[in-house]
Amino acid sequence: MFERLGRFVVGRAWWVIAGWVVAAAAIILTTPSLSDITSADQESFLPRSYESVQATELGQKAFPQQATATATIVVKRADGQKLTSADEAKVGQLAQSLKAKNIPRTSGYLTGPPAVAPDKSVQIINVGLDAPTPDDPALLDAVRDLRADIGPELANSGLTAGVAGDVASFVDNEDTFNNAFAVVGVATIILIIGLILVIFRSPIAALLPVVVVGVVLSITTGLVAAAGKAFDLSVSQDLQTILLIVLFGIGTDYILFLLFRYRERLRAGDDKRTAMIVTVQRVGEVITSAAGAVIVAFLVLLLASLGFFGSLGPALAIAVGVMLVTSLTLIPAVVSLLGRYVFWPSKAWQRAPKATIWHRLGNTVGRRPALVAAASGVLLVALAAGVLGYKADYDFSAGFPQETESAKAAQDLQRGFAAGALAPTEVYLTTSNGSPLNEQQVNDFAAAVAKAPGVGQAQPPERSTDPSVARVNLLLNENPVSNEAITLVRDDLRSAVHAAAPPGTRALVGGTTAIFADINSANNRDLSVILPVAAGLIALILALLLRSLVAPIYLVIAVLLNFAATLGATVYLFQGLQGEPGVTFQLPIILYLFVVAIGTDYNILMIARLREEAREGNEPHQAAAIGVEHAGPTVAAAGLILAGTFAVLLLAPISFLQQMGFAVAIGIVLSAFVMSMFFVPALTALIGHKAWWPGHGDERPAGGPHVPPEPEAVAKG
Hints:
4-stranded antiparallel β-sheet; SSD
C-alpha cells in the first residue's frame, strides 16, 4: 500500500503540492479562530457531580453580586509597628477614596468584617474584580490602576500597601511567563535548525521542519476550532502552546525519519524518485503506526472526567492526524522534487562513513545484549522507585519569585490572619425544599463549622437575597493550596460540615481548596483509567504492525517503566535534593502527553527497524546491531531536539516551569537514549525469534517486494 502511495505522490508531486496549497488556504480562510472556543475557567472543566462545582453554581445564583475575582489590598505601618486607631481610620478613608475613583471592573471595597488582623499587624480592603471571564485583560488593568492610585493616597501617612490575589500575581509575573515561552519558542527553532544543520549540513533540510510545522499549525488550529464549534467543545487557553510543542515534536520526528532513510537510499545508488518511493514504502508504515499510537493515546483522554483533558485529546489527535497526512504526501512530494539538493551544499550524503559511533554502539548491543538490557533496565527501575515518594503540589504562588508586590502582600496577610485568608473556603447552607432558613439554623451552623477541623477563623455568616441560602467563609490554618489543606477539605472538613447541617438542610463546601481537592480526586481517577487503556490500545497497534503478541507486551512495559522513571527522577531532584513539598499536580498528565505518547514514536521506529533487518536475513543479535546503527541517528536527533526545547524551561524563574522542563527533557532523553536505543534492542536480541511469535514478522514476506539492503553504516554527514 505504501509503495503505491509513494509512486502516486512522487509521480504527481506538483499536483500534490498544489492540492495542499488550495486546501490550506481554504481551511485557514473559512474556519473560526481558536480563541472562539477557548475557556480560562479551570473549574468549568470539572464534572457537575463534584461538590465544589455544585457549591460554585449555588453561590453564583444566591450571591449574583459576587465578583469574578478578588484583589486584596494589604495595608501595614511602614515602621512595622501595630496599627493605631488613626491608622485604621486612614485605611477606611483609603477604601472610600478608591471607590470614588470608579476604577473600571472594580467593586465592593469592603473593609470588614474582620478587616484588622488580631495582632494589629495589617488591615485589608477586599476589592471585587468583575469581568465576563477570569482571563479578561481588563482585570489586569484594574489591578494596575489600583496600585497607581494607592501610593498617592497613602503618601506621608506612615502606611504602605500591597495588592495580593491571583490576578495581582499574574500581573507581577506576566513578563516572566511571556519571556519564558518566548525563549522556548526561539530555542525550539534554533535547536531544530542547528541540530539538523549539524546532521545534514544543509540549510534547506534544516528549514524544512520549521516551514512545514508552521503551515500545519495554521491548518490544525482552524480544524480544531471548527470541530469545537460543531461539537460545542471548549479548550484551555494553553492549547495553542501545547499544539505548537506537539507538532514540532512529532513533525520533526517524522521529517527526520524520512530524510535519514532518503539519504540512505541515495547513498545506495537510487535516483531521487526511486529513493523517495522506497522511503515511503519502508518508513510509511512506521510513521502511520507511530502516529496511530499517538492519536490513540490522545483520544484516550476522552475517558477523563476532567473536561480539560477531554477537550485536549481530540484537539491533539487532529494535530497528529494532519501531521501524518503531511508526512506521507506533502513532504515526500517536496523532497522528491528537490532530490539531492535537499542536502545542499553538503556532498557528504554521497558517502557512508565507516566505524561511526553508531556502528560501535550497535555492535555493543549486538554482542552483549544481556549486559545492555540489565544495565538499562536497572537504571529505569532505580529511577522509577522515586515514584513511591511522589506528592502533588497545587501551590503555584510558591513557585513564583517571592520579591514581587503580590507575594510580599500575601506573606503579610498570612502573618496577620489565618493561612487561608487569601482563599477562604466557602461553605453554603441551603434548605432541601427551598423554604427560608431561620436565624437559629444559620447561627447554629456557623458556630459548628467554626469548630471544624483545620479552621483558624470563621467570618460572620452572610444571608443571600434568596432566603433559603446562607454562606460562611472559613479561613484554614493551612496554606489553602497545600496538600495538607486539600486533604483536610476532602476528608475531615467536608465530613464535619455535612454533619453540622441542621435537619432539612444540606451543606456544600466550595472555594479554591475544595476545587483542588476535587481536581485531585478526578486526576487520580483519570490517570488510573487513561494509562491502562492507552497501554492496551498502543499494544494492539504494535501487534498489528509487528504481527506479534510478544514484542508489544515488553514494548508497552518499557514505555510505562520509562514514564515511572521520568516521574521518579523529577521527585528525586525537586522533592529530594531541593526539598520542595511536591511536584506540580499537572506533571503526570504532561508526561503522558510528551513522554508516553511522543516517546512511543522512538520505540516504534526502533522495533520496526529491528524487524526490517531481521527480514533481510540477519540473526537477532546482528539485527539489533544494524538496527541501532541505522535508527540510532534518527532517534538521537529527534530526542535531542525535543528534550533541548523543554530543557530551556529550566532557565525560567518559576518552579513549576522548571519542573515541567526538567521532567519532559529527562523523559525524552530516557525514551530515546535508554529505552529505544539500548533496552528494547537488547531485549529483542535476547528473546530472539520468539519476539515475533505467533507470526513470522522477522521473515521476508513470500513474493513480497525486495529492496537491496542499505549500506552498513549511517552517520552524520
